[in-house]
Amino acid sequence: MNTQHKMKVLKFGGTSVGSAERMHALVQLVVNDEAKIVVLSAMSGTTNALVEIANALYAKNTAQATTLINTLEEKYKNELKRLYITETALQKGNNLVKFHFDYLRSFTLDMFTANEEKAILAQGELLSTAMFHYYLEEMNVSSVLLPALNFMRIDENDEPDLKSIETHLNEELEKYPGQKLFITQGYICRNAFGEIDNLKRGGSDYTASLIGAAIYAPEVQIWTDIDGMHNNDPRIVDKTHPIHELSFDEAAELAYFGAKILHPTCILPAQKRKIPVLLLNTMQPSAKGTTISEKTTENGIKAVAAKDGITAINIKSDRMLLAHGFLRSVFDIFERYKTPIDMITTSEVAVSLTIDSSKYLKEIVKELEEFSDVTVDENQSIICIVGDFGSETKGCALKVLNALKEIPIRMISYGGSPNNVSLLIKGSLKKDALVALNKGLFNY
Ligand code: ADP
Ligand code: ASP
Ligand code: MG
Q1: Which residues contact 201 (CB under 8 A, 6 or more apart)?
Q2: Residues in contact with 114: Cβ distance below 8 Å, sequence separation at least 6, in sequence order
Q3: What's 95's domain CATH number?
Q4: Can you give the residue range of the structural domain that contains 76?
Q5: Residue 153 lies in a domain
Q6: Would strands 372-387 and 301-317 be described as parallel, antiparallel, or unpaired?
Q7: Block means of pLDDT (10 residues each) for the chain, length 444 residues?
């Protein structure tokens, strides 16, 4: 094993690379004696702008797509002027930006499919990493730009292929013995067909954790615009506080159930290899942030999160619910449509479950109706309360229900894991529920 296997992984999100000034500030965080792989997101706003461009191209609205592309290019050109000092670096930056925006413009001439969309979405990370790499070069800091498209892979089920990532990443790293600073793109990857693809929105966190797992990193740091995981969604409630320690399971539940600070599944690769994940604030680097590790601290309820766009499906059977094979036939349908179930509750005659993708809802309902009465409620939200609720812990459920006494609850799931109580409510009541929980559980 060479020393590169001791490298930490540091991921910087959109706002942390969101302007020339932010990129300048990054140097202090990444340039020191420690060997590391730095994963960068696209500059904030870029991926959203690329989504808009792709939508215009889908709609065959070439004029609008061209305007959007040109506007974004202007933004980058202005950033470059503030990013670089020397003419040489500025020239390099301008060539880079021209290359990527000419590429974007080439899609206005051609047929547009999902593959082209993915190629478009990849441009943000390709730009930010090269821009930062050139800046380091200008500062006489030696770094290597590792192309994520050479090692980051997903399989035919769109799941990361850790074995392949490990092999290809190590092949890349071995080309640069003694090198201490690597820069790579978050979010982007290749799929089972070798095409450009991505790890879904917010996926740069996932990249960092996958790289951490692939190189057995001692630590993965996720640098963002807030001082760690907070007890509640700071975009929705007024007062929140950071949680300094979370177990992998607790953090994974919060991420999966809507805490935007982490990509929904990004904890899993780190957890698999027991690599601590630190959530840190680029605007306030000395703040303690959150450490996510195997350690569990027992102090009841720690945080709440909410996930929108949930569909609840109630399946009532003429046969008895627990009749042998009933649940299997239900689950079988969801499995065939590759639609994961989030929550499930049962009674003697019916089962209610939730899904967060309604892509195959029609087909699923049609098949369920062959042997049951089905009702569907869309626009629901899951409220997830996370902490340590071992079977010996008393009163947690009471506190939760008490806090939510004014909110109608559609489903409750408790006991599935010792770390989570989930409730399903109408999406329109999400804010009220989070505010009520902030008051009832955290005294705000
Ligand atoms: P980045 O661009 O760095 O990946 P994100 O916007 O994806 O950053 O995630 C950080 C944001 O997540 C915060 O600014 C905050 O508004 C939001 N957020 C939602 N829930 C939480 C939470 N429980 N704790 C901290 N931040 C949260
Ligand atoms: N740039 C991508 C996005 O905005 C990935 C990320 O930022 O994590 O979704
Ligand atoms: Mg993010």
Answers
A1: 47
A2: none
A3: 3.40.1160.10
A4: 3-225
A5: yes
A6: antiparallel
A7: 72 98 97 96 98 96 97 98 98 98 92 92 98 98 98 96 98 96 98 98 98 98 98 97 96 96 96 98 97 88 97 86 79 95 90 95 96 96 92 84 96 90 97 98 94
40-69 burial, b at 16+ Cβ within 10 Å, e below that, comes to bbbbbebbebbeebbebbeeeeeebbbebb
Q: Render 242-278 in DSSP notation, one character per residue.
A: B-SEEEHHHHHHHHHTT-TTS-TTTHHHHHHTT--EE
Pocket of ligand 2 (CB under 6 A): 13-14, 41-42, 47, 124, 186-187, 201-204
Backbone angles phi, psi at 3, to 5 degrees: -65, -25
Q: Ligand 1: which residues within 6 Å by Cβ?
A: 13-16, 41, 202, 224-226, 229-230, 233-235, 259-261, 305
- Write the burial class of residue 282 (CB in 10 Å: 0-12 exposed, 13-18 middle, 19+ buried): buried
In a 3-state reduction of DSSP, which class is residue 196?
Answer: strand
Interstrand relation of 301-317 and 350-355 (parallel, antiparallel or unpaired): antiparallel
Structure tokens at 73: 């290019």
Q: Is residue 286 part of a domain?
A: no
For residue 345, the cross-strand partners are 352
Same domain? 214 vs 307: no
Q: What is the pTM of this model?
A: 0.95
Cβ neighbour number for residue 400 with a 10 Å cutoff: 22
Q: Do residues 194 and 67 share a domain?
A: yes
8 and 157 assigned to the same domain: yes
Listed residues 173, 193, 225: the one ending a domain: 225
| Domain C-terminal end among 181, 206, 225 | 225
Q: Are residues 102 and 206 in the same domain?
A: yes
DSSP 152-181: -BB-TTS-B-HHHHHHHHHHHHHTSTT--E
| Residue 91 token pair | 């020239």
Ligand 2 center to 108 CA (angstroms): 24
Task: Please tell me the distance from the alpha carbon of residue 283 to that of residue 225, in angstroms, as a whole number.
Answer: 6
